[in-house]
Amino acid sequence: MSGGGVVLPFPITRRHGFARRQAEVAASYNPRSGEAYIKRQLIIRADALRRRGVSEALVVREVHALEAAIRAELWKLVLFGGAAR
Fold first, then answer.
1. Alpha-carbon distance 54 to 60, whole Å?
2. Which residues of the chain have pLDDT under 50?
3. 3-20 b/e with 16+ CB inside 10 Å = b?
4. Longest CA–CA separation in the chain, Å
């Protein structure tokens, strides 16, 4: 590929297991700590993408998508318990 572009062969939103695990950990904490945990995970993921040379616009898009995926899994846990897989 010319131009040195970065291809994300496996977008964050397709990593359902990752989002599910993050939601499970967050749900195991009290609400304030769970929220802090999610925010930390999003910062870690954004930093990792930046280190790989991903453009800031794509980092923002991917991190927003990951946050939405984690929160969707968290709601599934809240509404249906551990049975929602």
1. 10
2. 1-2, 9, 84
3. eeeeeeeeebbeeeebbb
4. 48
